[in-house]
């Protein structure tokens, strides 16, 4: 009995160990290290995790915050606030800090996604070895390792396999249509509070899969339509009731925006990336990868030519299988869509119209990052691999009275190794965490900030805004800040297009110039009056400048001229500008 349980648990243990190995650089010191390739997103998610812990501990509103982007606040439903992860893990955050929770979430996201696909594939294929291969690929494919660099909301796909399983069983024998609809509603609600983009992709992918399958097997699908529609109606009513207010807030509430910035909307996968290897794969080559992707966290379409060739053989070999045809069709559709509206081949613009160009302006679709549509291809490939293993195993072991061909099995393992070996992930790199001033970490700030403080970190700007979010996280979000890293409507556009971070007032932009361009500014009466107006309009109470900033001397001279002499408290200069 014990031996049987050990065997059954083995894939889950292997997946967990694999996730720890991939992220072992962060596990070495969660409080002292950050992701080398994507420090900003880690800071943002640690902030969201802290916000979720505060929502549990202090009964704060988890859907909107006034702590960022003062005095306007941030719509957290319109940002990736991962409440389905942050709220349950609040005890971990409160006890060990958001830096530890982040590594826990990233690890469980990788292992959990692989485990969920293994569990579902076991149910669908009744073949543990095949399910183990498929689950491993779905959880540790290059795209997943890429997003493990700061996108736990993308990596945490462990709800999606169960959504797929429930949908595929809708309208099936046994009745219980309302029960199935309620189960699906529960899964949809949980996924909506992890990542809505992946929920949309899953719905679209299932629509394509079922359509292609139904075209091949109408006699099998049509009798199930009525029951499936009853279940889906139950899902819509139940999930709609729970999500009605959060979605209203997201799309119409304070801080709602419509669409993403143009540079993000044009993020499409390079066609050549499909047969290349990602940077965090054994076969990866940075010189090639950097020419084919926008950044280290969006390598969604790197599958490598050995696997693509093998998949082509599998699809041809199993072309009579309706499931294989439906999977292949779904993968092809999403691979084409992932190229975006302006497709490229090895960096060169192909100048041909693409289907995504007709969709990217539509509601919901205007908030999709096109290259992420390739994320659908990963589980498609994982399922095809699992089916291929099942069929190959049957080929070499049937008829039942024939002994398995050892040579054939060895050959199958060799082919599998050649396909997947170059894709084996390498550890995600880490770097030293930017330090938080002792002014915050030791609690000294409580004696020098007003009760409802609004802090402007100096100099303003993207990088300093991230540092200020770290200051907040270190204090449990004990004060508000101007700026930060978030998505909010662009005040310069009439259509409320989303943008990252705030638009800084003229005086604040001037301070950024002092820091970044080594400019020398003479403080005039006009400039001083402008600063006073900017501070008042933003509700700023306190300016904070880390004493070790490389431009601290010049910044102090300018800010002293604008706001009066500052005070050095511990390792930070502060100005009270109330």
Give the tally of β-strands: 13
**Total domains:** 2
Q: State the helicity in percent bands.
A: 40-55%
| Overall average residue pLDDT | 92
Oligomerization state of this entry? single chain
Any overview of this molecule?
This protein has 578 residues and is an alpha+beta fold. It has two domains: 2-33 and 97-254 and 268-398 and 414-423, no CATH class; 438-576, no CATH class. The chain is 54% helix and 7% strand. It is built from 25 helices and 13 strands. The strands form five sheets. The chain has a five-stranded mixed beta sheet. Strands 1-6 form a two-stranded antiparallel sheet. A two-stranded antiparallel ribbon has the order 2-3. Helix 10 runs antiparallel to helix 11 (177-192) and helix 10 (160-168) runs parallel beside helix 12 (196-216). The N and C termini lie far apart (70 Å).
Question: What labels would you give this structure?
Answer:
two-stranded antiparallel ribbon; 2 domains; transmembrane helix; membrane; 13 strands; elongated; alpha+beta; five-stranded mixed beta sheet; Glycosyl transferase; 25 helices; 578 residues
């Amino acid at each position: 009995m014990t031996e049987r349980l050990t065997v059954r648990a083995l894939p889950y243990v292997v997946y967990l160990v694999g996730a720890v190995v991939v992220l072992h650089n962060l596990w070495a010191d969660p409080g002292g290290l950050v992701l080398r390739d994507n420090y900003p997103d880690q800071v943002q998610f640690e902030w969201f995790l802290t916000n979720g812990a505060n929502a549990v501990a202090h009964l704060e509103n988890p859907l909107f915050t006034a702590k960022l982007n003062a005095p306007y606040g941030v719509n957290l439903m319109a940002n990736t606030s991962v409440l389905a992860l942050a709220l349950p893990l609040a005890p971990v955050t409160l006890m060990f800090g958001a830096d530890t929770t982040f590594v826990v979430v990233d690890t469980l996201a990788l292992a959990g996604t692989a485990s969920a696909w293994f569990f579902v594939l076991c149910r669908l294929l009744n073949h543990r070895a095949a399910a183990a291969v498929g689950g491993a690929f779905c959880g540790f494919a290059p795209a997943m390792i890429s997003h493990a660099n700061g996108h736990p909301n993308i990596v945490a796909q462990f709800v999606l396999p169960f959504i797929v399983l429930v949908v595929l069983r809708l309208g099936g024998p046994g009745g219980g249509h309302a029960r199935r609809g309620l189960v699906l509603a529960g899964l949809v609600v949980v996924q909506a509070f992890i990542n809505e983009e992946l929920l949309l992709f899953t719905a679209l992918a299932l629509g394509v899969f079922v359509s292609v399958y139904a075209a091949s097997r109408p006699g099998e699908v049509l009798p199930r339509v009525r029951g499936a529609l009853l279940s889906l109606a139950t899902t819509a009513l139940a999930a709609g009731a729970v999500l009605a207010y959060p979605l209203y807030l997201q799309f119409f509430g304070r801080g709602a925006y419509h669409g993403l910035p143009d540079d993000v909307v044009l993020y499409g996968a390079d066609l050549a990336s499909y047969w290349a290897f990602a940077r965090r794969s054994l076969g990866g080559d940075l010189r090639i990868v950097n020419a084919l992707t926008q950044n280290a966290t969006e390598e969604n379409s790197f599958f490598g030519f050995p696997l693509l060739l093998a998949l082509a053989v599998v699809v041809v070999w199993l072309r009579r299988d309706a499931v294989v045809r439906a999977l292949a069709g779904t993968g092809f559709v999403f691979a084409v869509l992932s190229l975006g509206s302006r497709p490229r081949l090895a960096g060169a613009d192909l100048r041909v119209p693409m289907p995504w160009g007709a969709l990217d302006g539509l509601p919901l679709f205007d908030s999709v990052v096109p290259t992420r549509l390739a994320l659908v291809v990963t589980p498609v490939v994982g399922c095809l691999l699992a089916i291929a293993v099942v069929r190959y195993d049957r080929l070499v072991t049937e008829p039942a009275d024939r002994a398995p061909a050892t040579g054939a099995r060895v050959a199958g393992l060799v082919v599998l190794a050649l396909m997947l070996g170059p894709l084996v992930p390498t550890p995600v790199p880490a770097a030293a965490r930017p330090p938080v001033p002792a002014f915050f970490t030791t609690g000294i700030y409580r004696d020098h900030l007003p009760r409802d403080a609004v802090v402007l970190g100096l100099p303003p700007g993207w990088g300093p805004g991230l540092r200020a979010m770290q200051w907040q996280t270190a204090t449990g979000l004990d004060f508000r800040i101007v700026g930060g890293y978030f998505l909010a409507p662009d005040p310069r556009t009439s259509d409320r297009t989303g943008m990252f971070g705030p638009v800084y007032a003229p005086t604040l932009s001037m301070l950024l110039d002092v820091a970044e361009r080594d400019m020398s500014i003479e403080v005039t009466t006009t400039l001083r009056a402008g600063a006073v107006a900017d501070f008042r309009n933003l509700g700023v109470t306190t300016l904070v400048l880390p004493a070790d900033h490389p431009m601290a001397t010049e910044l102090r001279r300018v800010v002293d001229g604008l706001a009066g002499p500052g005070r050095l408290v511990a390792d930070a200069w502060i100005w009270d500008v109330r």
